[in-house]
Amino acid sequence: MYNIIDGKAISAKIKEELKEQVAELKSHGAEICLAVIQVGDDKASSVYVNNKKKACEYIGIESLSYHLPAETKEAELLELIESLNQNSKVNGILVQLPVPEHIDEDRVIKAISPMKDVDGFHPESVGALSIGQSGFVSCTPAGIIQLLKRSNVEITGKECVVVGRSNIVGKPMALLLLRENGTVTICHSRTRDLKEVTKRADILVVAIGKPKFIDESYVKDGAVVIDVGIHRNEDNKLCGDVDFDSVAPKTSYITPVPGGVGPMTIAMLMHNVVEAYHMQNK
Fold it and tell me: What number of other Cβ atoms are within 10 A of residue 96's Cβ?
């Protein structure tokens, strides 16, 4: 019988822990602040931004919101980021992606001070992770490590396979599993005999961006399966990259969609904001 890893419950526990930490800091006069910038009116982005504001409010973090029109020039956005970099009251800066096409996403990510890069996307943050130094870690992979640890899933010595090599999930996920002493393989669109590789996995993390792509034929008995994908199926219901109904019976642990990895991303963002405060106020 498989176990469902409940991301809602685990993220709620992390938020409670952060709420206590922030209350303690505030009792000593601290103020913690996250600045969120959204350019344009992408509906999914608006939902994410709203959820981030709610999480800040719950934990006790002040949030500054900047909602800029879609036609905002890149130079104007970079100017705002620089002013927030210089603002000592702001601990974390987040630019909601994607940005409109006329704005260079890479330039925007690099403009954020590495000390305030709570998304963990800055090249300095990624570099620190790759050589084992402390720094901000991309929120979704960091959340997956928490899901595994808080479900008492042993990573050390395990065969870990990551399907997907994006900068936001796949690559940092592999580095984090390596940091936890897993033996790591990264798969992608050019991987030969994908099934043969994924069937070796004790821990299989799927971030391939294709609905229900992974079925039971990709999974070995007793594996732990983490599904990062989120899509709408033909019935407009949410589903992941994993065909849950066929895969779940083969697993020891599995994350559902929704309610698995998703809630962890914002919880870990809040964790990074609190970490940013500590880094800036050693």
Answer: 20
**Where on the phi/psi map is residue 68: left (φ > 0), alpha (ψ -120 to 50), or beta?**
beta
Q: Which domain covers residue 187, as residue numbers?
A: 139-262
DSSP 167: T
My answer on whether 101 and 173 are in the same domain is no
Q: Which residues are catalytic?
A: 52, 96, 119
227 in Cβ contact with 239 (< 8 Å): no
Looking at the structure, tell me whether residues 90 and 144 fall in a common domain: no
Quick check: 52 and 266 in contact, CB under 8 A?
Answer: yes
Domain CATH code at residue 106: 3.40.50.10860
135 vs 74, 114, 130, CA distance in Å?
Answer: 27, 8, 10
* Helix boundaries (H) for 112-216: 123-130, 139-150, 170-179, 194-198
pTM of the model: 0.95
pLDDT band at 225 (very low <50, low <70, confident <90, very high): very high
